TrEMBL record:
<keyword id="KW-0902">Two-component regulatory system</keyword>
<dbReference type="Pfam" id="PF02518">
    <property type="entry name" value="HATPase_c"/>
</dbReference>
<keyword id="KW-1133">Transmembrane helix</keyword>
<dbReference type="InterPro" id="IPR003594">
    <property type="entry name" value="HATPase_dom"/>
</dbReference>
<dbReference type="InterPro" id="IPR003660">
    <property type="entry name" value="HAMP_dom"/>
</dbReference>
<feature type="transmembrane region" description="Helical">
    <location>
        <begin position="12"/>
        <end position="37"/>
    </location>
</feature>
<feature type="domain" description="Histidine kinase">
    <location>
        <begin position="251"/>
        <end position="466"/>
    </location>
</feature>
<keyword id="KW-0472">Membrane</keyword>
<keyword id="KW-0067">ATP-binding</keyword>
<dbReference type="Pfam" id="PF00512">
    <property type="entry name" value="HisKA"/>
</dbReference>
<dbReference type="InterPro" id="IPR004358">
    <property type="entry name" value="Sig_transdc_His_kin-like_C"/>
</dbReference>
<keyword id="KW-0418">Kinase</keyword>
<keyword id="KW-0808">Transferase</keyword>
<feature type="domain" description="HAMP">
    <location>
        <begin position="191"/>
        <end position="243"/>
    </location>
</feature>
<dbReference type="InterPro" id="IPR005467">
    <property type="entry name" value="His_kinase_dom"/>
</dbReference>
<dbReference type="InterPro" id="IPR036097">
    <property type="entry name" value="HisK_dim/P_sf"/>
</dbReference>
<keyword id="KW-0812">Transmembrane</keyword>
């Protein structure tokens, strides 16, 4: 007995469909073969009865009609094998018969009554005397256009019915054999589906319990193969995400510990007193710098959390993109100067470029991109910012460096959260993930093109401000959420 489940349902559905189909075919076949045999017998007797009627009309004379030997001749001429031929009057009385046994009373079956009325009658039923199933065909015999007698052929259907029963039993046996084969086939088909599903389910249960090293093994085809591949890929991604998360925790712990150690050390040192103003100023400067670093790390994690929960609120306004990039360059100028890196801005639009968005968040986008360009550039190199028109209604900002570049292996992952190409470089690995989402919040696109050892170009497309945006900003006092 197949236990409840998809396998049992498949077998049951196949069984019901095939059973109903074979049952209908069996009924149609039985009826068709019965009708075929019965019609063949009827047509044969009908043809001979028609010949007998035509013969009677053409050659019978008034004198012959009264001649009792004529009926005997007629019986001998039109007699059929295994068939009784009878000549009746219109009342059903037997005048002559090829059977030695004469009926003791008039025959009043439906075929005789129809023939007496001038038509050809057919009757299937059981004879009263013998109890066997017979078919009778009766045709009127006319004299001078008037019905006088009835010629009646009667044949037994017992042999035919016996053959029909045998054919029915044989076809039923064939149907049962087909049904058995289909059932076995459906069981095999169900097992071929259920076994992989059970395997996938077992491995999925292991994954649900945290065993992400478990993998679905087997060369499954079609949807099952795709499902197995998807689950294996999911497990690999979870393992990778856990590894990245662990690396992030380790990295962020180090990032937080370093400034905290500096703050604590200088705080304890300054608390002891006895320092001249210059040393005190140096210590306070280090404390301030490390505090800003801590604040930056915390704000980065808070921004990422808000973006993940769709809670980031933007203060919308009209932003002059060139002025914003110039401010960004000023913010990183000191850092670039320390490494001898030149920052260039090239405006190819030759006109003011205005976008609608949150100025602080847009500045955060480009500040992060330019800061990364400086961070991964060689000393005494350059970082190039280019503003140009892209597609109609869009502006393109490209940040290009001649730094270490990114390998093709890592290029598709650099925008993933917690991912860092160089774990020794510090940071949370959230910068580009946050930048990507901020660009999308401004209905823009960000693409990264890089070649290892040559440099990297980050292209940001943003929609230009339309004239109607100014009216909307005026009505809304320049504040709102950009969704």
């Amino acid at each position: 007995m197949i236990k409840k489940g998809i396998g049992r349902q498949i077998v049951l559905n196949y069984f019901i469909i095939v059973f109903v189909t074979l049952f209908m075919v069996e009924i149609i076949f039985s009826l068709a073969i019965r009708v075929y045999y019965y019609d063949t017998i009827y047509n044969h007797m009908y043809t001979h009865s028609t010949w007998a009627s035509d013969f009677f009309q053409k050659f019978v004379r008034l004198s012959a009609e009264r001649d009792p030997d004529y009926f005997t001749e007629m019986l001998r001429t039109f007699e059929l094998d295994n068939t009784e031929l009878m000549i009746l009057n219109l009342k059903g009385d037997v005048k002559a018969s090829s059977n030695a046994f004469q009926a003791d009373k008039a025959i009043q079956t439906s075929d005789v009554l129809q023939a007496a009325a001038g038509g050809v009658g057919k009757w299937i039923g059981r004879q009263t005397s013998t109890g066997e199933m017979v078919m009778a065909v009766s045709t009127p015999l006319q004299v001078r256009g008037e019905n006088r007698y009835i010629v009646r052929f009667v044949t037994s259907l017992e042999a035919v019915n016996s053959n029909l029963t045998k054919l029915t039993l044989l076809s039923t046996a064939v149907c049962l054999a087909v049904l058995a084969l289909v059932t076995l086939f459906s069981i095999g088909l169900a097992n071929s589906i259920v076994k992989p599903i059970n395997n996938i389910r077992a491995v999925s249960a292991q994954m649900a319990r945290g065993k992400f090293d478990a993998r679905i093994k087997g060369d499954y085809k079609y949807e099952l193969g795709e499902l197995a591949s998807t689950l294996n890929y999911m497990a690999e991604e979870i393992v990778r995400s856990n590894q990245i998360k662990d690396e992030f925790i380790s990295s962020i712990s180090h990032e937080l510990r370093t400034p905290l150690t500096g703050i604590k050390g200088w705080s304890e040192t300054l608390t002891m007193g006895g320092f001249d103003p210059e040393e005190t100023k140096l210590g306070m400067g280090i404390i301030s710098k490390e505090t800003d670093r801590l604040i930056g790390l915390v704000e980065e994690m808070l921004d990422f959390s808000k973006l993940q929960q769709n809670e980031m609120k933007l203060v919308i306004g009209r932003v002059n993109l060139k002025e914003l990039l110039q401010e960004t360059m000023l913010n990183v100028w000191a850092k670039a100067e320390q490494r001898g890196i030149q920052i260039k801005l090239d405006d190819k639009t030759l006109q003011p470029v205005t976008v609608v968005g949150d100025g602080n968040r847009l500045k955060q986008i480009f500040l992060n991109l330019v800061d990364n360009a400086i961070k991964f550039s060689h000393e005494n190199s350059w970082v190039h910012l280019v503003i140009s028109r892209a597609e109609p209604g869009q502006v393109l900002v490209e940040v290009t460096d001649t730094g270490i570049g990114i390998s093709e292996e890592h290029l598709n992952k650099v925008k993933d959260r917690f991912f860092q190409v160089n774990n020794q470089g510090g940071g949370t690995g959230l910068g580009l993930a946050i930048t990507q989402q901020l660009v999308e919040l401004h209905h823009g696109d960000m693409d990264i093109h890089s070649e290892l050892g040559v440099g990297t170009t980050v292209a940001v497309k943003l929609p230009l401000a339309e004239p109607e945006d100014e009216a909307q900003l005026a009505d809304g006092n320049g504040n709102g959420d950009l969704a």
